[in-house]
């Protein structure tokens, strides 16, 4: 690959000098190499004069590097080394000057050597999943098949993209309410009947909510424990206003203000796992990590109001393992596409080990936005559901709102019958539900 040398100058990023197979390196801390097809890459030097395996890709025309170009990503290369003296020529033979398509993948390895091979071939290691003998990260497309053929690698699979099941636009935003109300959804699922049977000696089952966070400062939300997202985003914050709404359906306090959740006067045992940053996007590897976290903290019920359009073998095995071996009840939103928009099933709801929950309105009519395929197990309230959000209350609609109704009721039932298995609780919910046809 032919690269044009670019002397790095903060005040003049358009200075292009020469063309060579090698990039001349002085003692500068960083230089730019402009490659054909308008792609460019920056090499950085460490304090001891060695080339770092760190590059910044930029998009732009071949006339040079100018401020304001979209920065695609910062990648850290593994397995690529450059023999760079303090000055002289830095051999870039074999360096991927052309920016190739880079995807999110999970490498499943057979042993520690396979893990090392996987990490060396990744541009950026995003997540290590030792329980599954897997590591997730960004990989250049041309390396996928070589990795799959490696004797110490089991498989390489796409790391599917996820997003929150946000539902239709929120209809109203509510300020703090001085009078307390009971949602029609709480009444429809007959939560009060279970509340009345629950006593101070009843040990609550731990519910793990995998979502966008939780507003710990909300006066109507019960105390909880939680786990931050791995980038440091706090579980005690909820900029997307989704996780707090989901959690409030279960845990909103009976305290003479605002609204009352499934647990009414009782305090649930909640663990919140934040699974994303402030953007509504994450990956299957993040969800696998979150389920692993829920298992490790002793959760009995996992609530997931999130969705992807594609199944994934490793993710499915994680759900199956949590259900069959760890005895956890998994509940997920069926999806908001409606069968006329998305013909395919939504996941994780459509895995056999997960209870898939569709949405109905206050008249028990199927919500127009709700998935209603043959993988749906139950329907629950999901239209105009009032619940907590940072700073107040909102009416939201979606299967996101339906799923926590089922998760909350399941946990209450299980706490009253702690000798039951997760399969027995699941069967009880399905067998006692009203058949809506």
Automatic annotation (TrEMBL):
<keyword id="KW-0378">Hydrolase</keyword>
<dbReference type="Pfam" id="PF00082">
    <property type="entry name" value="Peptidase_S8"/>
</dbReference>
<keyword id="KW-0479">Metal-binding</keyword>
<dbReference type="GO" id="GO:0005615">
    <property type="term" value="C:extracellular space"/>
</dbReference>
<dbReference type="InterPro" id="IPR022398">
    <property type="entry name" value="Peptidase_S8_His-AS"/>
</dbReference>
<dbReference type="GO" id="GO:0006508">
    <property type="term" value="P:proteolysis"/>
</dbReference>
<dbReference type="InterPro" id="IPR034202">
    <property type="entry name" value="Subtilisin_Carlsberg-like"/>
</dbReference>
<comment type="similarity">
    <text>Belongs to the peptidase S8 family.</text>
</comment>
<protein>
    <recommendedName>
        <fullName>subtilisin</fullName>
        <ecNumber>3.4.21.62</ecNumber>
    </recommendedName>
</protein>
<keyword id="KW-0720">Serine protease</keyword>
<dbReference type="GO" id="GO:0046872">
    <property type="term" value="F:metal ion binding"/>
</dbReference>
<keyword id="KW-0645">Protease</keyword>
<dbReference type="InterPro" id="IPR015500">
    <property type="entry name" value="Peptidase_S8_subtilisin-rel"/>
</dbReference>
<feature type="active site" description="Charge relay system">
    <location>
        <position position="400"/>
    </location>
</feature>
<dbReference type="GO" id="GO:0004252">
    <property type="term" value="F:serine-type endopeptidase activity"/>
</dbReference>
<dbReference type="InterPro" id="IPR050131">
    <property type="entry name" value="Peptidase_S8_subtilisin-like"/>
</dbReference>
<feature type="domain" description="Peptidase S8/S53">
    <location>
        <begin position="205"/>
        <end position="436"/>
    </location>
</feature>
<feature type="active site" description="Charge relay system">
    <location>
        <position position="211"/>
    </location>
</feature>
<dbReference type="InterPro" id="IPR036852">
    <property type="entry name" value="Peptidase_S8/S53_dom_sf"/>
</dbReference>
<feature type="active site" description="Charge relay system">
    <location>
        <position position="242"/>
    </location>
</feature>
<dbReference type="InterPro" id="IPR023828">
    <property type="entry name" value="Peptidase_S8_Ser-AS"/>
</dbReference>
<dbReference type="InterPro" id="IPR000209">
    <property type="entry name" value="Peptidase_S8/S53_dom"/>
</dbReference>
